[in-house]
From TrEMBL:
Matching InterPro entries: ClpP/crotonase-like_dom_sf, Enoyl-CoA_hyd/isom_CS, Enoyl-CoA_hydra/iso
One family name in Pfam for this protein: ECH_1
Residues spanning the signal sequence: none
Top-rank lineage group of the source organism: Bacteria
Family, as annotated: Belongs to the enoyl-CoA hydratase/isomerase family.
PROSITE patterns: ENOYL_COA_HYDRATASE
Annotated protein name in UniProt: Enoyl-CoA hydratase/isomerase family protein
């Protein structure tokens, strides 16, 4: 997945990002010795990193993966003991955590989480913030605050509920149990399960990269408005106006008539 991709200079410890000529970027959670547990510094760095990445010329799709055999085991528990020793520190930690999640959810291009092994707690929170999730058969997904006595913030609770429905969100959040990839597929927590999940995710990312960014941007805007309580019609209006002069429609129709692949 990282082959022939150039690492970009604004990674930070625990987060690496690389971009290929195919327009597909790969964000790697990179603490394999800790099962890619997320530190406060990683949460804090994510919004800025994603802002810089969004401005990269030619970027079309973002894949989010974990180094080694896991996506992420969640928050760094050793760090959490210090965080929860002070209520003010805990509040600040949750605010940083939610800002990172919201930055990923608002990324302007399609995002796809590539899940192997542990996808737990904050790791699952990031996966849910992506547009799509593809899992390996060995993936185990869950959100575990109920095992720690932590109150899960409202923003990720609502996002999970909208994805899987209230009963299944209750199942996951109130039990803290991990579910296998096959169950996650039934729950609607992942879209596909594949033996070679990285190859399948890259294959699908290339399909996304070949489609109209104009269409995809409009889709993301409408869905975000609907889920956020906004006005979907207002969200799509600017995209509709832009489409009247943008080249995508002309190219798409010409390609269909000429029986060839469009070049968006």
């Amino acid at each position: 997945m990282l082959k022939d991709r150039q690492e970009l200079p604004y990674g930070v410890p625990g987060l690496r990002v690389a971009l290929g000529e195919d327009g597909i970027a790969v964000l790697t959670l990179d603490r394999p010795e800790k099962r890619n547990a997320l530190t406060r510094a990683m949460w804090q760095a994510l919004p800025g990193l994603l802002r810089e990445l969004a401005e990269e010329p030619g970027l079309r799709v973002l894949l989010v993966r974990g180094a080694g055999g896991n996506f992420s085991a969640g928050a760094d528990i050793a760090e959490l003991r210090e965080v929860y020793a002070d209520p003010a520190t805990a509040d600040d930690y949750h605010a940083v955590n939610v800002r990172a999640e919201e930055a990923l959810a608002a990324f302007p291009h399609p995002t796809l989480a590539v899940l192997r092994g542990a996808c737990v707690g904050g790791g699952c929170q990031l996966a849910v913030a992506c547009d799509l999730r593809f899992a390996a058969p060995d993936a185990r997904l869950g959100i575990t605050p109920a095992k720690l006595g932590i109150v899960y913030p409202a923003v990720p609770t609502v996002r999970l509920t909208r994805l899987v429905g209230p009963a299944r969100a209750t199942y996951l959040l109130c039990s803290g149990e991990l579910v296998p990839a096959a169950t996650a597929l039934v729950f609607g927590l992942v879209e596909e399960v594949a033996e070679d999940v990285e190859a399948r995710a890259l294959e699908f990312a290339r399909i996304l990269a070949s489609r109209s960014a104009q269409t995809q941007g409009a889709v993301k805007a409408v869905i975000a408005a609907e889920l956020g309580g906004g006005d979907p019609r207002a969200a799509v209006a600017g995209w509709e106006r832009a489409s009247r002069t943008a080249p995508d429609v002309a190219e798409g129709l010409a390609a269909f008539i000429e029986r060839r692949q469009p070049k968006f």
